[in-house]
Specification:
Blueprint lengths: L13 E5 L3 H10 L5 E5 L5 H8 L4 E3 L11 E6 L4 H13 L3 E4 L12 E5 L2 E5 L6 H14 L4 H11 L10 H40 L6 E6 L10 H9 L2 E4 L5 H4 L7 E4 L8 H16 L3 E6 L9 H10 L3 E5 L4 H9 L13 E4 L1 E2 L2 E2 L4 H4 L6 E4 L5 H10 L7 E6 L7 E6 L3 H8 L5 E5 L4 H15 L1
Parallel strand pairs: 1-2, 1-4, 2-3, 4-5, 8-11, 8-12, 9-10, 9-11, 13-16
Antiparallel strand pairs: 6-7, 14-15, 16-19, 17-18, 17-19
Helix pairs in contact: 5-6, 9-10
Bound molecules: S-adenosyl-L-homocysteine.
């Protein structure tokens, strides 16, 4: 991040701009939304600026800027659209200690003005560090349609009520009050009875919250999906948005954790490979401890919580402590990996069932019904199989599996660094060690990438011809 976003207090402060043309007008339109004292230097100002000056909304000085003109200015805009003149005025402002912006000159500017979505006092600033103004405008347009026009009004009324709400205990209860105001009672009352009704509504709502008992602690076991934040469910996003405590695995990506409520306590309980049961007991203890304190907990697990996620050990711990819980499913690695291959997990006439296996369990390499798996046409999604690849290969071949059976590994499915390794049962251990996969990888036994399969069909067809 080369530019750090902040909101500058401009009420009663001096802001100076040099220029009288289109660029000046564009900046002034934004600045006129503030309570800054605006001074414009322009030997020739356009009609719009003249009009603003006549209305007393800014001070217009109809000459070129000179040393001393930016004394005590907080911000300065060089908007003459003339390289030499902008450099001259900017150096005057810099000498006077103002922060300088030169219109359309990112390199020499000390600050830049973002695209703004204005629901005063709610203001969204969008910046791309000059890289993609088109993108900034698109995001702005998107937000403009998403944020109701009444948002500003509600926030303004809410602000006057903040002191009164201090009677509610800090934390969850107070947050719930505001959530209910901004997303429930507030918009509803505003629509039905206008601003006056909102004030009365706030009093009633506060009375309800004063007498209401605290919410009990609760645990949501949430599937975080394979890594791409866009593959989170809406329910997962909502849970993250409301969480007091987020307890997550190693597989959960930083991009997803970014979506947790800013004040949430985020605890990483990530285990690598063969995790020990002590660690699991510690996780159970953490969950129970926070929930008994009344926290709304999100237990965030990679993929789907019910697939090799030790979900039931944690729900049992909740039951034992009489803590309420629910499960929010997620996209499991097998689904994301099949999508990466462009393959269907099941297919009429090929495999009418699919097995989900783990490469290792608490005892070490996991044992399975190898005899059935070795039959032609079987498909399995093998989790945590990298370390046990040679073992799995040995078992399957021993039980008569065809050495040419396709085996495909998908590493980091759905993430930007996703990689696909297509091999065969015969070559699996060698190809795997050559590829050096470091991320989580799912192994498909009996499934090739769509394109490879198609290519194979072509070769077969050619051979037959
Ligand atoms: N609950 C998870 C699985 C946890 S076990 C789920 O439903 O996906 C951990 C294993 O999942 C890893 O060893 C790997 O085999 C697989 N896995 C998880 N995320 C993955 C990803 N993004 N790409 C490939 N495999 C992944």
């Amino acid at each position: 991040m080369k530019h750090f976003p902040i909101f500058v207090a401009l009420e009663g402060r001096r802001v100076v701009l040099s220029g009288g043309g289109d660029a000046a007008v564009a900046k002034l339109r934004l600045l006129l939304k503030t309570q800054a004292r605006l001074t414009v230097f322009a030997p020739q100002a356009c009609a719009e600026i003249m009009a603003w000056a006549n209305e007393g909304r800014l001070t217009l000085v109809q000459r070129k800027m000179a040393p001393g003109d930016t004394t005590c200015a907080t911000l300065f805009y060089a908007a003459d659209e003339d390289e030499a003149e902008d450099a001259r005025t900017a150096s005057i402002a810099r000498a006077d200690g103002a922060l300088v912006n030169i219109v359309d000159n990112l390199a020499d500017s000390q600050f830049i003005t973002p695209a703004i979505v204005d629901r005063d006092p709610v203001v969204v600033a969008i910046g791309t560090e000059g890289a993609a103004p088109v993108l900034a405008r698109a995001i702005k347009a998107d937000l403009e349609t998403q944020l109701p026009a009444t948002l500003g009004t509600l926030a303004r009324i809410g602000k006057t009520f903040r002191k009164a709400v201090d009677v509610l205990p800090m934390g969850r209860r107070r947050r719930d009050f505001w959530r209910s105001f901004y997303f429930g009672a507030g918009p509803r009352t505003l629509e039905q009875g206008g601003e006056a009704a909102v004030q009365d509504g706030l009093d009633t709502l506060l009375e309800t919250f004063k007498t209401q008992a605290d919410r009990a602690g609760h645990v949501a076991f949430v599937g975080a999906g394979p890594g791409d934040p866009e593959l989170l469910t809406l329910k997962a996003r909502k849970a993250l948005d409301e969480a007091d405590v987020v307890i997550h695995d190693r597989l959960v990506t930083p991009e997803i954790l970014e979506l947790a409520r800013r004040e949430a306590i985020v605890i990483n309980v990530g285990k690598r490979g063969f995790g020990t049961s002590t660690a699991q007991e510690e996780i159970n203890r953490l969950i129970v401890e926070h929930a008994l304190r009344g926290a709304q907990i999100v237990r965030l697990k990679g993929g789907d919580p019910s697939v090799f996620g030790r979900l039931d050990e944690e729900t049992e711990a909740c039951d034992a402590a009489r803590i309420g819980w629910h499960v929010v499913p997620g996209i499991t690695a097998a689904s994301a990996s099949a999508a990466a291959l462009g393959q269907s997990l099941t297919r009429r006439g090929r495999n009418s069932s699919i097995r989900m296996l783990t490469g290792h369990d608490m005892q070490g390499f996991a044992d399975h019904d190898w005899r059935t798996l070795a039959q032609p046409g079987e498909v399995a999604a093998i989790y945590m199989a990298k370390a046990s690849a040679r073992y799995i290969q040995g078992r399957l071949i021993m039980h008569g599996a065809d050495r040419a059976t396709p085996v495909t590994l998908v590493e980091n499915a759905s993430r930007p660094d996703q990689r696909i390794l297509a091999t065969t049962l015969d070559r699996l251990p060698d190809d795997l060690s050559k590829a050096g996969l470091n991320g989580p990888a799912l192994t498909f036994y009996g499934l090739a990438p769509h394109a490879a399969e198609a290519a194979l069909d072509v070769t077969k067809a050619q051979e037959l011809a």
